[in-house]
């Protein structure tokens, strides 16, 4: 069975703090993709990153970084020096069976000034 | 480039009425998905199409829900008759094969 667990329901930080959002997944597929999406208060879902199961290189994009570890089935997302504009709900998702996306329940991030 | 376009953005209707949600996917994308988002159930896949053909509709809640994709640039999700428990945000998304999902801004449905 496929599963994505985002154990942190809500996180509050003060601006400029670093914050890590956890994502743990389960799948029996050997080929799969992992994603992170951002849903700001305005409601749209914004794609952030895609990672396939054969690429365990960490990725950095500005203040965002992602740590993919197959050994622990985790795909964690870190925001460095958080800003108020980072306040949103963040979803981790697993793509399996070519077209089935399984979304986690999301982590709501509150960044306070 | 235009993203996924959904209409209406907001719909308020009374129980028993027919609701039609519309979606225009990104040009060239051959997969189209309809999702529903609620606080209780999160993001749920309702149905997806490949090259205008429905592939998996196992997530459609019941016969009151139907979806069509008459051509590559247009899809509808219809609820008839609507019920208060259908209140949710409905997202349309499109993608290329093996690509990420691009979502529309969503249609917020309230059934009174």
How would you concisely characterize the structure shown here?
The complex is a heterodimer of chains A (113) and B (112). Chain A has 113 residues and is mostly beta strands.
Largest sheet: number of strands, sense, barrel closure of chain B: 7 strands, mixed
Roughly what fraction of the amino acids of chain B lie in strands?
over 45%
Low-pLDDT stretches of chain A: none
The helix count of chain B comes to 0
Task: Walk me through this protein's architecture.
The complex is a heterodimer of chains A (113) and B (112). Chain A is mostly beta strands and 113 residues long. Chain A has strands at 3-5, 10-14, 19-21, 24-26, 33-39, 46-52, 59-61, 64-69, 74-79, 88-96, 100-103, 107-112. In chain A, strands 2, 5, 6, 10, 11 and 12 form a six-stranded mixed beta sheet that branches. In chain A, strands 3-9-8-7 form a four-stranded antiparallel beta sheet, with no helix packed on it. In chain A, a hairpin with a 3-residue loop joins strand 10 and strand 11 (100-103). Chain A starts with a strand and ends with a strand. Chain B is mostly beta strands and 112 residues long. Chain B has no helices and eleven strands. At the A-B interface, strand 5, strand 6 and strand 11 of A face strand 5, strand 9 and strand 10 of B.
Topology:
The complex is a heterodimer of chains A (113) and B (112).
Chain A (H helix, E strand, L loop, with lengths): L2 E3 L4 E5 L4 E3 L2 E3 L6 E7 L6 E7 L6 E3 L2 E6 L4 E6 L8 E9 L3 E4 L3 E6 L1
Chain B lengths: L4 E3 L2 E4 L5 E6 L6 E8 L3 E9 L2 E4 L8 E7 L2 E6 L8 E8 L6 E2 L3 E5 L1
Parallel strand pairs in B: 2-11
Antiparallel strand pairs in B: 1-3, 3-8, 4-5, 4-9, 5-6, 7-8, 9-10, 9-11
List keywords for this structure.
heterodimer; A: 113 residues; mainly beta; six-stranded mixed beta sheet; 12 strands; globular; B: 112 residues; seven-stranded mixed beta sheet; four-stranded antiparallel beta sheet; 55% strand
